[in-house]
Amino acid sequence: MDKLSYALGLGIGQQLAQMGAGSFLKIEDFAQSISDVLNGKDLKIGHRDAQKLVNDFFQQQEARMAAEQQEKGKAALNEGKKYLAENAKKEGVVTTDSGLQYKVLHEGNGRKPTAHDKVKCHYEGFLIDGTVFDSSVQRGEPAVFGLQQVISGWTEGLQLMQEGSKYRFFIPYNLAYGEGGAGQLIPPFASLIFDVELIEIV
Question: What pTM does this model have?
């Protein structure tokens, strides 16, 4: 085995894998095109046509992914609405005018932050199916942030808490990450649950 050749192939293969090419790439034809270019043979497809084929393919892929995301968003929106409607009926759950829901897990007796304060918190974030998507508890280090730097559900909810309190927030999508979601774990229109412990105002 020629290690350099293999190493070059690894780099290209990794890029293709990240693009999801394993589901559509014909290895023999791909290798043939590389061989034809390197050996100066007549190409079966001209460069201009090849570029158009590739561009058209990726436009179709983007359209398909956008449609899939839209469907996921619709499902998340409906599931969130249903969940919050049922949750609002549960004992101890309070719903504010904005639609934020919260439940007091432990009431502290310290100061309450304002919207312009910076706080130190431990928290865990969940999708409504119970999936944990973020946790300072698991990282073993509290988070420090300004109330203007977080989603509006947190900005509102933390101002209800006193230092030493632990609340559970049930946050509708419009007070969370909205129509776009966040990263790979939080889909568009997702309602979220957070267990938040307000350690101190810093």
Answer: 0.70
